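Researcher: Quick one. two chains, 609 residues in total.
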Amino acid sequence: MLFAAEKLAGPSVPWFYLNPLFILLGGIVVLMLVGSLAPQWPRHWYGVFSAATAAITLISTVLLWDNVTNEKPRAIFGDALALDHFALLGTISICAAVFLCSLLTSDYLQRDSDDGPELYVLYLTAAIGGIIMVSSNDLIVLFLGLETLSLSLYVLAASNRRRSESQESGLKYFILGGFSSAFFLYGIALVYGATKTTNITGIFTALSTSQSVPRNDVFLLVGTGLMLVGLAFKVAAVPFHMWTPDVYQGAPTPVTAFMASAGKTAAFAALLRVTLTALPTRVDDWRPIIWVLALLSIIVGSLLAVTQTNVKRMLAYSSISHAGFMLVGIEAAAHPNSPDAGNGISGVMTYLLLYTVLVIGTFAVVGLVARKGDTATELSDFKGLGKQQPALALALTVFLLAQAGVPLTSGFVAKFGVIKAAVEVNSYAIAIAAMVASVIGAFLYLRIMVSVWLEEVTAENTPIQVPFLTGLAVAMAAIFTIAIGVVPGWLLDATQQVAALTGR
Amino acid sequence: MFAAIAPTSTWYLILGAVLFGIGMVGVLVRRNPLIMFMSIELMLNAVNLTFVALSTQLTDINGQTAVFFVLVVAAAEVVVGLGIIVAIMRRRSEVSVDDLSALKG
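Model:
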């Protein structure tokens, strides 16, 4: 008999470690069932429910932290997923993003006389995709996570049916996102051809030890290049950044915040894992690419940000420049012979966590200033914010100073971490470029602050209301930003462990 | 004489690369979102062909398993993509990506 009664042995499923995914999934199912079967919930219930789901997920992830410390990072689920501090920290960033963005979205929907569970379901789905990306140990699993995240983001970007800009941004994001996914997938196929496996630790083993696998260097080089192109699109590194300003400007503001935080976290974590776990033996092949991407992103992002007049576009270019800083950290991590290379990994992951909170706080204020219809995002719309809403303007100032990297804010801790990592491995050129660019970037943030504090309110600038949930999110983000800036020690100690990736 | 040129899996790898290239050029030069979208699907299917050819070449089943995952993803992408395109077409009679130019700078 061809298929005799041979039992198909599946991998053992470590249910406990998949808790974060199941909690999010439960939240999605409840929201979808309620949305289609139950009568309309009272205002804000959907948003608070989604935020609560994210908060519970975050707590369950934090509870896994000590377990991983005691039992060492390892691969679970038939080697498909990695369980390490790196994955947990990425999960924490993504959950924090869902938590804050759900609060913002609740008020945004109410202001535009809209309500419903759809956006929250998409946030939670995107979070599942992102978490799978940060913890994947197999390129195909990584691709599935990437698509789960991206498909949710395409719909989120196009979700405002009253604004044609929103749909335009959704279509642009979809076409370019699908294009880049295809590159990434072709890269996976070619790497598979070179190593006979799609498992990330398996690729490392195949490349470093065994002679029995077919080692075709052309496949491996082209495959690595294509995977980097695909991921560089996702993290919005120059020269693959063209979609970012359009999509960030057109998408609803809370969604933009989500893309800039959770989307970036997941894509960067995937980039780190692919380069540093699967391909560390070929570091000389791909480190120059990362070097060029980092330099271009920092400089082009900072320079083009200064020329914009729309605040959402400015922040889009500033996010490109932040992506450049994170790439500096990856470049620093790509020196396997240096004892300090691990600082690059923890630097990038810390940066991602801090940037998540920062950027959501910034976009929360921008979303409030955008007023009804989500359209007033020109620099002139910010005139006189300091007189109308001093507290809100103060919070915005804190976020902008932090983005510029001023000491005593979390942004300084983040930038200092990656630049220090670069200096420790003697990558002086790129560290200096990063410092110069952050000075250029400071000009951009000062421009917004001047508009907020020093200019008079104009007649068309209608008063701004600060609803409770958004106010709460802004306050939490601002307090976190300052608290980490003043006492960063405990966070840096905790993230030191992140550098121990599964399989390294 | 045809037996002498029996196609090997390398032929399929080259065919996959050519199809991928056609899809790439299609996305870059065509201006109708539906055609661009079809080009992306062509790229994904070129990768599928590559996976299967490599799987045969390496005598390893995992490459063929990957194809199923890619097929599912491509189907999901069709749903989302067509949804967005239909939503835009409701507002305008004809769609070319050149008309979608509110966002620039």
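The longest helix of chain A spans residues 164-195.
Researcher: Thanks, that's what I needed.
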